Automatic annotation (TrEMBL):
Metalloprotease TldD/E N-terminal domain location: 24-88
Record InterPro entries: Metalloprtase-TldD/E_C, Metalloprtase-TldD/E_cen_dom, Metalloprtase-TldD/E_N, PmbA, TldD/PmbA_N, TldD/PmbA_sf
Family: Belongs to the peptidase U62 family.
Name of the protein described by the UniProt record: Modulator protein
Organism phylogeny: Bacteria, Pseudomonadati, Pseudomonadota, Alphaproteobacteria, Kordiimonadales
GO BP term, example: proteolysis
Length: 446
């Protein structure tokens, strides 16, 4: 983000104040991306985009309004201020709106997190990555078709200026590639995928690695068996175990807590997960996929334990939710240019346990190892959980034949209390978990 953008935001905030706003903030987000898609040895598509948006938020008493534009001309920005002021005078009062507390704002130098890689990756290079991934997919015996491969590269920058003294910006980059393949033929076909994602181009897995993984995973799903219904231990592979973190993050979002619509609304400082489970949100991981240097309101961010040894320690809050709950802000405000700050986590992960994956399942005589989840049958108010799934049977402590067309069900409050984490945590996704075991889930089969 250039100094020109920060100067423009300063000017916008000052003009809003002169127009009668009691307080104001302005954000600018710039992004560029390019991507390719590849299928069965041929380049299918090349896309590219560039965008820059500016959003102004003004406060008049306890009323707020926000308007955005992609036009940086003086005339457009002056109209933006006029529209925003008119809207703020017309909307109902919100007793919890306002800028973040001044004493919670980030001050001093920004952390050195190495979030930006200026490597200029051409469309030809992206196509070569996708091509190699698909070739690796086809090299696996049993793979019969490709569902396509793709690769992308992008960068973005974010700047924020507030009328009570915050002014800063940072930028980041992202690179990713994926491939999906089919094994088997006719009615016996099975599909699977794999991908890689990184802040820096050199940190991506090789196309041969994730392409081969996708093929092997598809072949491993061939000839699935059915299951009868019953209560069994369920083991979530890491790539689906992280979905449990998503349900948890939604349940501790301060907006839902303030409204009383979360199944965890009464669990602060209480045992919520089994002993030994810790869940961390760390915005300061070097090259982390969700790292950030300040939150969407300019608040200082820091590593925090959301769950410590099974005990829920905090909600995630922006300033509006913090005021409503009479709690300090936590640095979890998210930001766009077109709406007031929301709430979101950064690098969210469940800490590794002390036992290996093999030891975690060694005593399971009959259970299920889940590698895919289907649908979103989760009730955020009650915690009721029901999702389609596929994976493998566990027999006598060993991952065995594939299974499909099953439904796993329970209640997240009870599931969290049954969680046991393996020691195989790796940081591959925006949220990360090791292999997780939950006993006593209901399995609905044929």
């Amino acid at each position: 983000m250039s100094n020109t953008s920060l100067d423009l935001l300063h000017d916008l905030v000052q003009k809003a104040k002169k127009a009668g706003a009691d307080a104001a903030d302005a954000a600018a987000i710039e992004a560029t991306s390019k991507s390719v898609s590849w299928h069965n040895g041929k380049l299918e598509d090349v896309d590219g985009s560039e965008g820059e948006d500016i959003g102004l938020r003004v406060f008049i008493g306890k009323r707020q309004a926000m308007v955005s534009t992609s036009d940086r001309s003086t005339e457009s920005l002056n109209k933006l201020i006029d529209r925003c002021m008119s809207m703020a005078k017309a909307v109902p009062e919100d007793p919890y709106c306002g800028l973040a507390p001044e004493d919670k704002l980030h001050t001093g130098p920004l952390a050195e997190l190495d979030l930006y890689d200026d490597t200029d990756v051409s469309a030809e290079t992206l196509a070569e990555i996708a091509h190699r991934a698909e070739d690796a997919l086809y090299s696996v015996d049993g793979v019969t078709n490709s569902s396509g491969a793709g690769a992308s590269a992008g960068s973005w920058s974010m700047a924020l200026v507030t009328s009570h003294g915050f002014s800063n910006s940072y930028k980041g980059s992202s690179f990713s590639a994926s491939v999906s393949g089919v094994a088997g033929e006719g009615t016996g076909m099975e599909r699977d995928y794999d991908f890689t994602s990184a802040r820096h181009f050199q940190d991506m897995d090789s196309p041969e690695e994730f392409g081969r993984r996708a093929g092997e995973q598809a072949v491993a799903r061939l000839n699935p068996t059915k299951m009868t219904s019953g209560s069994l231990p369920v083991v979530f592979a890491p790539r689906v175990a992280n979905s449990l973190l998503g349900h948890f993050a939604g349940a501790i979002n301060g907006t839902g807590i303030a409204r009383g619509t979360s199944f965890l609304k009464d669990y602060l400082n209480k045992q919520t997960f089994s002993n030994g489970i810790s869940i961390i949100d760390d915005p300061k991981i070097v090259r982390g996929l969700k790292s950030r240097l300040f939150d969407g309101e300019g608040v200082q961010v820091q590593k925090c334990a959301l769950v410590d040894d099974g005990v829920l320690k905090m909600w995630t809050l922006n300033s509006a939710a913090a005021r409503q709950l009479n709690l300090p802000v936590t640095g979890h405000a998210g930001r766009s240019t077109s709406s007031p700050p929301g709430i979101g986590c950064s690098n969210l992960y469940m800490a590794a346990g002390t036992v290996s994956k093999d030891d975690l399942i060694a005593d399971i005589k009959d259970g299920v190892y889940i590698t895919e989840l289907i649908g979103m049958g989760v009730n955020g108010v009650t915690g009721d959980y029901s999702r389609g799934a596929a994976g493998h049977r566990i027999r006598n402590g060993v991952i065995a034949e594939p299974v499909s067309e099953i439904t796993i069900a329970g209640n997240l409050k009870e599931m969290f209390m049954q969680c046991v984490a393996a020691s195989d945590l790796k940081f591959r996704y925006s949220s990360n978990a090791p292999t997780v075991r939950i006993d006593g889930m209901m399995i609905a089969g044929s």
